[in-house]
Amino acid sequence: MAKLSLSDLHAIREREEKNLRKRDIHGRNVHVVVAMGTSGINAGAKLVLNTLAEEVEKAGLDNVIITQTGSAAPNPEPVVEVFEPKKGLVVYGSVDADTARRIVSEHLADGRILEDKRIELVEKEQ
Amino acid sequence: MGFRNYILVCGGTGCESSRSDQIYHALIDEAAAQGVADQVQVIKTGCFGFCEQGPIVKILPEDSFYVQVKPEDAKELIAEHVIKGREVTRLLYNKTPHKAYEEVEDIQFYQKQMRIVLRNCGSIDPENIDEYIAAGGYKGLEKVLFEMTPDDVISELRTAGLRGRGGAGFPTWMKWNFTKQESNPVKYVVCNADEGDPGAYMDRSTLEGDPHSVLEAMTICGHTVGAHQGFIYIRAEYPLAIHRLEVAMKQAREYGLLGKDILGSGFDYDIEIRLGAGAFVCGEETALLQSIEGHRGMPQPRPPFPASKGLWGKPTVINNVETWANVPEIITRGGEWFASIGTPDSHGTKVFALTGKICNSGLVEVPMGTTLREIVYDIGGGIAHGKKFKAVQTGGPSGGVITEANLDTPIDFGGLQKIGSMMGSGGMIVMDEDDCIVDVAKFYLNFTVDESCGKCAPCRIGGKSLCNILEKITNGNGEEKDLKQIEQIAHAMRIGSLCALGQTAPNPVLSTLRFFPEEYKAHIIDRKCPSGKCKKLISYEINPSKCIGCTACARKCPVGAISGEVKKPHKINGNVCIKCGVCKDTCKFSAIEVH
What we know:
The complex is a heterodimer of chains A (126) and B (595).
Chain A lengths: L5 H18 L6 E6 L2 H5 L2 H15 L4 E6 L10 E5 L3 E5 L4 H14 L16
Chain B lengths: L4 E6 L2 H4 L3 H14 L6 E6 L11 E4 L3 E3 L7 H11 L23 H4 L17 H6 L4 H8 L3 H11 L11 H10 L6 E6 L8 H8 L1 H15 L3 E7 L3 H16 L15 E7 L8 H8 L23 E5 H13 L1 H5 L9 E8 L5 E6 L4 H8 L9 E6 L5 E4 L9 H6 L8 E6 L4 H15 L5 H18 L6 H16 L3 H5 L2 H9 L1 H8 L15 E3 L9 H5 L5 E2 L7 E2 L9 H5 L5 E3 L1
Parallel strand pairs in B: 1-2, 5-6, 5-8, 6-7, 9-13
Antiparallel strand pairs in B: 1-3, 3-4, 9-10, 11-12, 11-13, 14-17, 15-16
């Protein structure tokens, strides 16, 4: 009797492929960037980051990369930037966990920008 | 929740010798200490190929390419990159952080490369079979066991046009077909991992980075030709590759991908490792088979070829590591796909170990037909320290040199032969103006003389005689008739030796003589070594108009050959000087000249 049947092999491949695909950066063209400076974390950016990551995973959005960046001050933090090739860059300010969920379900999954949370990015003073 | 960052640490032999194993553990420890162990996965992978800049650490999804990392850097990488999301600029290869949403562009070293053999090296954990399976591994075996007949497999390989990557370039499908047609009920499959060319480490890295690809290919072959036992012949001096192979074989057995009734197909197959002591001649297939059988590794006359009478007299398919690594991809993606890559003469890609006087030494895989210029300048980054290019040695001790004039020749089996070299297994040693061509020829000959098994007189005696002549020339005692004699001995070795080692041993001499006759003549007639390498033919002198009398050289000279008053030009006593070159390296005013 074979140790592993063909369907067992397929099951392993399917399960592991998901994990491996997360490491693949090619073809992942939507970037979500969370500002994680001290002030951002103080304002709750960590929760936002975790919520975004969970929701993206739940929704199975394979083309989204979530990364972090430094402080976004003096903008209203937590700040989340969403970059898509077609829509370009959209910046959200004062994001909380609830907004994070909306970013995933409305903007990333549906293509509707959350106009009520949108801000104009003020460049950091040098 | 899944991991957010993936840290890939190179676990090739090169990087491991620069403490990449410590880096790997330091990163895991730091991630735990800083409370982010659940957010990052640290993975030890195979060779990234960019060995010049090792140890290499790559962090995803940002695709940050960190080079020359030390274990002490682990703390900062976790604290800055993983926790704060800021790249550690000082460790980045190009020293400039990329914008978060910028399209990631491959660094120049990778731009012209195409990875088929090394497809998984540097991206999966070679000690985890699940990652190989996830990357499409064992799909080829699946197809062969359940969807294809053995004849289909042979014809797929024929369409692909895969040729042996060990050097000779024999069509793989023909080898398999010969063995398949034999009626003997016992047949064997052998992997030649006895990589021996100076400077070559393609096979080692493939086994270290993706051992399952070779196991899968050998199993595919076993099913196709009707063999149930495979052997991997690998040199004992490749401990990491052996370890990874052992781990891979254990995991494959646990999953039943090796052993009885593979995947319920009814097909039994297993593989064993045989360690070689590192003799170069054991890379020759008949000598290799002798060695597996427990005899002294000496070549045997062919025919009979191993395909009909090989290991213990049974029909045996023997292929090189790189050839094997191509097979699963060809089966999965089809022969047509493979045939579309490369040149009409040679399909697919070739892995080269780029070493010598080059900026980016490392492992590169390029489509056949890429020119040497692209490899040396675009991928290799040109000659190190701004020196001038002189030649590239390909094909190891059996090959020849390629000069500036032939840099634009597309590299494939036929192309290299036309310009007097050969593909060989893929070692590529770059030489600059400081390398003496006679000295290089002498180096390779010394190598083959050492490694000759001694069976055939033309190789055993001829090699030594050639060596003596070259020694004489580099000592300044050469005569013009020596060149004629070189050609005579070379001819005798070519026709009188049993195996390729003896037949091709004169190649480096003949090829350098063909492309650099003036350099040989300079040694023989002018008694000079133009590149200043042959100690017996050079003298160090101080240019009095440049010397300011700083005494730096006199203080460094190990034999006290330099004398002179402070602030006045110094002098070297030629009778005492041992020509070590320390004075030249020490002088800040380029006052020391080699004549």
